[in-house]
Amino acid sequence: MVKINTNYDKLAAGYLFPEIAKRTKAFLEANPNAEVMKLGIGNTTEPLTKSTLDGLSKGVEKLSTVEEYSGYGDEQGNTALREAIAKKYSNYKVALDSNEVFVSDGAKPDSANIQSIFSKDNIIAVQDPAYPVYVDTNVIAGRTGESKDGQYEGLVYMSCTEENCFFPSPPKEKVDLIYLCSPNNPTGAVATKEQLKAFVDYARENKAIIIFDSAYSEFITDESLPRSIYEIEGAKECAIEINSFSKSAGFTGVRLGWTIVPKALVTEDSDAGKINALWNRRQTTFFNGASNIVQEGGLAVLSEQGQAENKEVINYYMDNAKIIKEGLEAIGVKCFGGVNAPYIWMKTPNNLSSWDFFDKLLNECHVVGTPGSGFGPAGEGYFRLSAFGHRENILKAVEEIKSKLKVEQ
Ligand code: PL4
Questions:
Q1: Where is the Aminotransferase class I/classII large domain (predicted)?
Q2: Are 275 and 265 in contact (CB under 8 A)?
Q3: What pLDDT, in 10s, does the model give residues 86-115?
Q4: pLDDT of residue 409
Q5: For residue 332, is pLDDT > 70?
Q6: Cβ-proximal residues to 301 (8 Å cutoff; 6+ apart), any chain
Q7: Residue ID of nearest Cα to ligand 1 atom 3
Q8: How confident is the model at residue 12 (pLDDT cuts 50, 70, 90)?
Q9: If you measure from the C-alpha of residue 264 to the centroid of ligand 1, how many angstroms do you get, rounded to a whole number?
């Protein structure tokens, strides 16, 4: 008799973002004339830049001739793109070999799949709140017990609160795999070099591995803040880094990302090179490579001109963040993030629960956001607004909030 993976039954709720889409759809069905402004899912809205489009077109063009046509490529990614990604790290004074770079179809699949190369016995630590993929995939893999009071048994939750400026210290106990995200989704907090160093020191002492999701690194403008964990000495021995073209180049629907698995990584039971070989084996077995057209687009994004053009789009989103933050603060809402990160993390007014505030904002202002509790128990009482959006939509949403949201001071 075939048996299902009953770990799925442990998942406390549906995946967060489809749940938001479902509730928004229900509201629109009940209020067909309402104009809803979506600041919920972090989804890019601005068109691809000229050089990106030229790159993608070149990818298509190449498929039109016998000489340049390509079919399956290397599962790890095209050499030119792997080299360009490795070269990008030299901007942070980090030297990487191109065979430490694995091109993928995005940071979500990589951050979901990476746990599969580690033993089921590993103890997992996550920031709370965090991008839900880290927790849910470890639940599905059987590394947790049941969910009780919003926390899965066996997981170590590193609370991110106002008191620690939404970035935790390393755990007191010994853990094996640590998920960190900076700039953070959902809080918008960005780790300093000192804060990352504390984790790198912890990981080296405890032979733990950090999975560092830097999907929003391009939103950092403060030069003193690290864009890659490898800016911290010793991180290549203990950290895997995952990044994406989604938010930095508008590839949310195009799909392209990468993971760095340094050769120097070591664990308690493996020597340098082994984790890199395992991820290589995993990818070559389960993945058939990113689209050759898209990889050509990725190369164009990483060109000097591509980087300059995409910086302008990032600045546009960050101007949105400023508008949202200032608008909310003007009506007395306490806000965090929104600087060096495209998310505004707000305290719900009048101590409303995150989902109650979701309903209130949707009903009173026709604005969709993301309930903080969907990112973990410490997110309860908070709410995330995304700065990805057309300017006119953002302005309208902020005006609606300022004029219609009933906040008791
Ligand atoms: C909705 C920290 C967004 N359906 O596009 P990818 O796969 O390269 O990157 C996804 C990703 C990876 N790491 C972090 C992220 O925040 C995201 C995207 N998060 C959000 O609103 O939190 C989009 C979510 C999408 C999803 O499930 O990822």
A1: 35-401
A2: yes
A3: 999 999 999 999 999 999 999 999 999 999
A4: 57
A5: yes
A6: 51, 52, 55, 245, 248, 249, 251, 307, 310
A7: 42
A8: confident
A9: 28
CA distance 383 to 4: 35
Give 173-227 pLDDT, tens digit per residue.
999 999 999 999 999 999 999 999 999 999 999 999 999 999 999 999 999 999 9
Nearest CA to ligand 1 atom 4: 17
Please choose, from the candidates 92, 106, 118, 107, the residue with its C-alpha nearest in 3D space to the C-alpha of residue 227: 92
Q: Are 402 and 331 in contact (CB under 8 A)?
A: yes
Predicted TM-score (pTM) of the model is 0.97
Question: For 353, how many CA atoms within 13 A lie in the half-sphere containing its CB?
Answer: 7
> Best mutation site among 108, 241, 248, 375 for ligand 1, i.e. most ligand atoms within 8 A of its Cβ?
108
Give me the amino acid identity at 154: G
Which among 246, 248, 345, 385 is the best mutation to test ligand 1's pocket, defined by most ligand atoms within 8 Å of the CB? 246
Give the whole-angstrom CA distance, residue 39 versus residue 395: 11
- The string of pLDDT tens digits covering residues 126-139 is 999 999 999 999 99
Lining residues, ligand 1, CB within 6 Å: 17, 41-42, 106-108, 111, 131, 181, 185, 213, 215, 244, 246, 252, 257
Rounded Cα distance, 379 and 200, in Å: 25
Residue nearest to atom 17 of ligand 1 (CA): 108
Q: What is the mean pLDDT of the chain?
A: 96
| Reduced 3-state DSSP string for 220-260 | CCCCCCCCCHHHCCCHHHCEEEEEECHHHHCCCCCCCEEEE
